[in-house]
TrEMBL record, chain A:
It comes from Afifella marina DSM 2698. It comes from the Bacteria. The lineage of its organism: Bacteria, Pseudomonadati, Pseudomonadota, Alphaproteobacteria, Hyphomicrobiales. Its main location: periplasm. Residues 1-23 form the signal peptide. This is Trehalose/maltose transport system substrate-binding protein. Keywords: Periplasm, Signal, Transport. It is found in: Periplasm. Belongs to the bacterial solute-binding protein 1 family. Gene3D superfamilies: Periplasmic binding protein-like II. One of its GO terms (cellular component) is periplasmic space.
TrEMBL record, chain B:
It is a multi-pass membrane protein. Residues 67-260 form the ABC transmembrane type-1 domain. This is Trehalose/maltose transport system permease protein. It is found in: Cell membrane. Signal peptide: none annotated. The chain crosses the membrane at residues 9-29, 67-90, 102-123, 135-158, 179-204, 237-260. Keywords: Cell membrane, Membrane, Transmembrane, Transmembrane helix, Transport. One of its GO terms (biological process) is transmembrane transport. It comes from Afifella marina DSM 2698.
Automatic annotation (TrEMBL), chain C:
The keyword DNA-binding does not apply. Residues 107-319 form the ABC transmembrane type-1 domain. GO terms for biological process: transmembrane transport. The keyword Oxidoreductase does not apply. Residues 1-20 are annotated as: Disordered. It is a multi-pass membrane protein. It comes from the Bacteria. It is found in: Cell membrane. This is Trehalose/maltose transport system permease protein. It comes from Afifella marina DSM 2698.
Amino acid sequence: MRFGTAAMAVAAIFTLGSSEVSAAELSIVSGSVGADIQELRTQLAEFEAETGHQVDIVEMPASTSDQFGQYRLWLAAGTDDIDIYRVDVIWAPQLANQFVDLRDAMADVIGDHFPSVIESQTVEGRLVAFPMYTDAPALFYRKDLLEKYGRNPPATWEELTETAKVIQDKERAAGSGQIYGFVFQGAPYEGLTCNGLEWVASSGGGQIVSPEGEITINNERAAQALERARGWVRDIAPAGVLAYKEEEARGVWQTGNAVFMRNWPYAYALSNGEDSPVKGKFEVTTLPAEPGSRSAPCLGGWNLAVSKYSKHKKEAIELVRFLSSRKAQKERALTYARLPTIPALYDDPDIAERQPIIAEWADVVEKAVPRPSAPTKRQYNEVSKEFWTAVNETLSGAASAETNLQTLEHRLRRLKRDGWR
Amino acid sequence: MPAFVKRTAFYALVVLIVLFSIFPFYYAILTSFKSGTALFRVDYLPTDFSLANYRDVLVNGVFPLNILNSVIVAFVVVAISLFLAVTAAYALSRIEFRGRGILLLTILAVSMFPQIAVLAGLFELVRLFGLYNSLFSLILAYMIFTLPFTVWVLTTFMRDLPVEIEEAAIVDGAKPMTIVMKVFLPLMWPALVTTGLLAFIAAWNEFLFALTFVSSNDTRTVPVAIALLSGASEQEIPWGTIMAASVVVTVPLIVLVLIFQRKIVSGLTAGGVKG
Amino acid sequence: MTNAIPGAPPTDDAMRTEEQPAARSALSRQRLASAWLFLTPMLAVLAFVAGWPLLQTIWFSFTDASLADLDAARFVGLRNYFEYVDYGDGTGEWFGLFFDAQWWNAVWNTVYYTLVSVSIETVLGLIVALVLNVPFRGRGFVRAAVLIPWAIPTIVSAKMWAWMMNDQFGILNDMLMSVGILSHPIAWTASPETAMWAVIIVDVWKTTPFMALLILAGLQMVPSDVYEAAKIDGVHPVKVFFKVTLPLIRPAILVAVIFRALDALRVFDLIYVLTPNNTETKTMSVFAQENLFQFDQFAYGSAASTLLFLVIAAITLVYIKAARLNLGGGR
């Protein structure tokens, strides 16, 4: 069999340019939150039928931090067993050297996508990953409960705290012992960096590290924002929130046990699923902000990168093209409420009908706040770890926000020394 | 204290020990038979009997392949270790030479190596030889702990055999290799089985190297597969599937351990811990 | 290896063969030659998979190696261990592992975890061993039951316990709450007060059998006439235990403790699965792994690995000296 493949490869070389004839076996690696794998598999089946190539999915756990560690390792080992990586928006600068430049291959479609997303995946002039979908979190709320107690969706964090507390207490008094006011992602991992950044940035506390590379996190507003979040734990959020990632939070929410949830739009489609107890009972809105500041949803999203060690770069690029196409993005938007990276799709009537969140979200995506992965370059991951550690330790009450932010600033300065590398 | 109270207290302690030992595994089995929302209800006695999780694990995924990988790696590692160890143990236990004590200590030290200390270097080695993401990388890496261990235990065992058994052979002018093969090997089956089994379990359970040196679904071994098991379901964390996978990989081990119970105990305490 | 197993040290005594007459010197030369022949393959493999990688790790710790391009590593001296950075404005700061609070936190976590878990395991192991040493009906069954946790892979036990300790649906909270010990559910693996204890509980559950079996072996070597003599003299059983049994099995316990401790000092998988990224439970191995592969700090992680190796070696040597253990043969 191996000889057969080799012979085919040789034949392909001789009949230059006709390599489409030979079917390649590709493999794509992807994390799995919610229905990630299912949605990928459906689309890959289409791709396989169209092209005759075969695509394997290598599944990874939900934690983005764990995925990143593994991907970095594989790329360092120069493994040719993975052709396409599904990468988080923040990873581009850290893995850039190991990915193929897609600028020329994608030249004709680059213009269709949000320039900011393309920009975020461009490192030193090389386009190292191509957008699959973008992401910006929402505040999920239980419409039925808010109406029951005559409340409006909160615009500020104070309102959220207060509303959550009131409804939680009244519902519990009425017999729903398990209900909590608010769930979010408090586990020490990349997702907490997002949550923390949102609290801080929407309270006028800046973005951890400014776009110019200055360490700005140790300020009073940031400390207040984190103190406020600490007040939530055990009061309106379960103590276990300190270990919650996206799926744990969704688990509590989707069983009807939370009034508010901070999560990505994927949870919108799943919460509206046929067997979901909260189907039709909830609504989404933008994340709260302090008076005088803007809501600051963290910019997320996933992109596709081709490994430079791949033996099937050409076919891999075909797949990237397929999965990022307008058609594929629309499908994902329709079924899974994935936010497209093609602005035109936000006006699409089919999508507006099936997943109203997407039309509403055009604005939110554009104003989303990026994590400081660009200024901190290859050190972003450590910066993020320091930040999520400081936030997690504040939430757990191990030390005050002020102390933690001071330590954080000191640690970041040590990391930076004379400049980010 | 009346004897009756003493006896009751003693048996209460015994029951406590047994409960503490087996309850978590019992609970894993219980969970593995649940599906859907039943998972999120705490039960102490079996209520559900759904095989869905087992179907997920054994039919739908690559998990059977992961089991096969683990079996292959563990078998090869054990076979090579035993082969190298038998002759080495003979030299270490029956032939006197200078530096033997130091050598034994070194071997013991290697078996106690923190894995992380060699991880960076091994990674470079694996990369250099192009073994990344192949089972060979694991077979190579696992030698670090199985080889010193088997050498050590077999040395202890051989040392305790009486001098007389090889004297006749020596007088007959038999070569050392012949002595090992004809005289010692037949006597050593019990020791080989025990050591092999313990080394097998160690290789079967290893995690850090397997996490580092292997990348794709179909080359993963069981512990990594379980740690990374995410399940394609829309449940939050697929606890049911994880527990089913855990039960599947643990039951054979438990059966082995129960069959070879006595041997394992004697292997663990090989030669007695005289100190 | 999680299931490290100690064997007994072959002593020179036991291995001493008869005086060799001169006529046999040819024979002993032949035996000596074959000894080295027998040892060479084993030693070569060990040098290849253990010796060389260890040296390589140590070498990386003196370079600026990055996982993105390992071949470009340059020698930088001791910079990963300690380095003074002058900011050029009259101020400066010390950097490197020796001045890294997080490293020392990891060292402390590791030592704390080892001390606590091994102590508990020793006490529980002793109790289980004493129980198993008493002949009673069903002893075989009990011994088999006790072996079960030991046979379960660490990853599996971590997952099993993670599920039992789940804050919302875990049976542990349910149990403690229904008995009235807890008033509200505890997030065992998440809260800083309980995370380390969660890890210790799982470790104790998994490795107490190992301790128990080693101690049991020691107990079974205590001659029964010792007990009979004490019984006739009417000495209280508790006194017999502390005055007679314990001193006799002390060597067995000491050996078991060192092997367990060495295992505990390098703990990785349990923590990686049970309490990922938690500062409270970050041990030396986890710290090193994280720097090696998750951050762009391959050299720094190598330095941590090297120090871990040295720390463990130092602790072992001190312990062997202090406990006057005889591991290497000779008296």
